[in-house]
Design goal:
Naphthalene 1,2-dioxygenase Alpha Subunit, Chain A, domain 1, globular, 9-stranded antiparallel β-sheet, binds fe (ii) ion, 4-stranded antiparallel β-sheet, binds FE2/S2 (inorganic) cluster, 23% strand, alpha+beta, Rieske Iron-sulfur Protein
Length: 429
């Protein structure tokens, strides 16, 4: 099947609105830009939907947004993973309400048509009225493309386009880095998702996830209250931490550059736990990977990365960013549990409750800044937002990766460079 495409290329000139050193404020406010993004980024591209560990048993399913589409991600009774539009083929009702469930079949709440977890129509009430062959066996419609990497399930609403491998590009190393912190090579996203609805554009959340410049200001009270929270020792432009642009819109804050200097493995990324208190985890890692390799992994820790467009591997939590409108976004966060690391997982859960929960001391600060930024960009002048911090001192590696200092806008420039390319597709050279 294919999903009808939106009309020809929009008339918005993204090459004019995104420059190498600044972006135009209308990109955060314009309804037409948002509609265009939902097609070019959130329908045509690859979007993270769910992780295997959320639907481990046949019969499990979750309901997710793929751009503006509600989709059912299921683990069917044969063990396959499926992604289907949440729309009954009879009269169009959403088949699933709620966020998740476990069933042998899905029943539409309107007239009771029933579907298997792979989308097949299993039965309808009073089928006699369809005699004469009027009832075509119609199941739930599958989205055109589904692909997986390391247990992460992605979807695309277009039947053609680059592969997920190509989309992820160099960002695969971050997924591998995170999985490689588990002695079993797997993560589990089983704690549930915290949801925050923000009155700001989704791109502000993306940019903030890899902004190394704001912590002193926005999280000043936290840093003052809890020094061991600090994953980065030196939040100044003298910090050894690097910020990188891997291309394809994928960017990170490479904390490993700082952790290697600090040398105290585990301590930084676990929020101040010495390795002596994680004996089982350390032993399991050494058993799995050998002492030298295990020590390297435990020293360098998890990635702090933003994968274009909607998933952030934010050390020991994951954030998923869901655009709602030009000025509304929902962010979902969940702790990352490492399979085979129970003692560390218990600590990670407590940390995430403190940092990300409803009374959390970290993410609420960022949410407030997102909303204040939206209020600001709704005003007319100055029209442009700056992107040029650290531009002249940026390095470009042989593989094309751009590297800047912790407080440089290398990550924002990486996002916008790819955004400009994707949003200009079909607009001619
Ligand atoms: S709309 Fe689903 S059974 Fe009628
Ligand atoms: Fe922040």
């Amino acid at each position: 099947m294919s999903v009808a495409r939106q009309n020809a290329a929009s008339s918005i000139d993204y090459r004019r609105l995104v420059e190498s050193e600044r972006v135009h404020g209308s990109l955060y406010t314009d309804e037409a830009v948002f509609v265009d993004e939902m097609d070019k980024i959130y329908a045509r591209g690859w979007v993270f939907l769910a992780h295997y560990s959320e639907i481990p048993r046949p019969g499990d399913f979750v309901v997710r947004q793929l751009g503006r589409q509600s989709v059912i991600v299921s683990h069917d009774l044969t063990g396959e993973y499926r992604v289907m539009f949440n729309r009954c083929p009879h009269r169009g009702a959403a088949v699933c309400q709620g966020d998740a469930g476990h069933r042998r079949s899905l029943t539409c709440p309107y007239h009771g048509w029933t579907f298997a977890l792979d989308g097949r129509l299993m039965g309808v009430p009073s089928p006699g009225a369809y005699e004469g062959g009027q009832l075509q066996p119609a199941g739930l419609a599958h989205i055109p493309r589904v692909a997986r990497y390391g247990g992460f399930i992605f979807g695309s609403l277009y039947a053609d386009g680059v592969s997920l491998e190509t989309h992820l590009g160099k960002a695969k190393v971050w997924l591998d880095q995170l999985l490689g912190l588990s002695p079993e090579g797997e993560i589990q996203l089983t704690a549930g998702w915290m949801k925050h609805r923000l009155n700001c554009n989704w791109k502000m959340v993306v940019e903030n996830q890899v902004d190394g410049y704001h912590a002193q200001m926005v999280h000043g009270s936290l840093l003052a209250a809890n020094e061991t929270f600090a994953t980065v020792r030196d939040r100044k432009d003298t910090s050894p931490t690097r910020v990188r642009d891997f291309g394809d819109g994928h960017t990170d804050i490479d904390h490993a550059t700082d952790y290697r200097v600090a040398g105290d493995k585990l301590f930084r990324w676990t929020g101040g736990i010495p390795e002596t208190r994680l004996g089982n985890y350390v032993a399991a890692m050494r058993q799995a990977y050998g002492a030298e390799e295990a020590n390297r992994r435990m020293l360098e820790g998890p990635p702090h990365a933003m994968l274009f467009p909607n998933i952030s591997l934010a050390e020991m939590n994951i954030m998923v960013i869901q655009p709602i409108s030009p000025t509304e976004t929902v962010q979902f966060t969940t702790p990352v549990f490492l399979k085979g690391a129970d003692e560390l997982n218990a600590r990670t859960l407590r940390r995430c409750e403190g940092a990300l929960g409803p009374a959390g001391f970290l993410i609420a600060d960022d949410a407030e800044i997102g909303e204040l930024t939206q209020i600001g960009v709704n005003n007319l002048a100055p029209e442009w937002l700056l992107l040029n911090r650290g531009l002249s001192s940026e390095d470009v590696n042989a593989d094309g990766t751009r590297v800047g200092g912790l407080m440089d806008e290398t990550s924002q420039r990486g996002f916008w460079r790819h955004y400009r390319e994707v949003m200009s597709e079909g607009a001619g050279a």
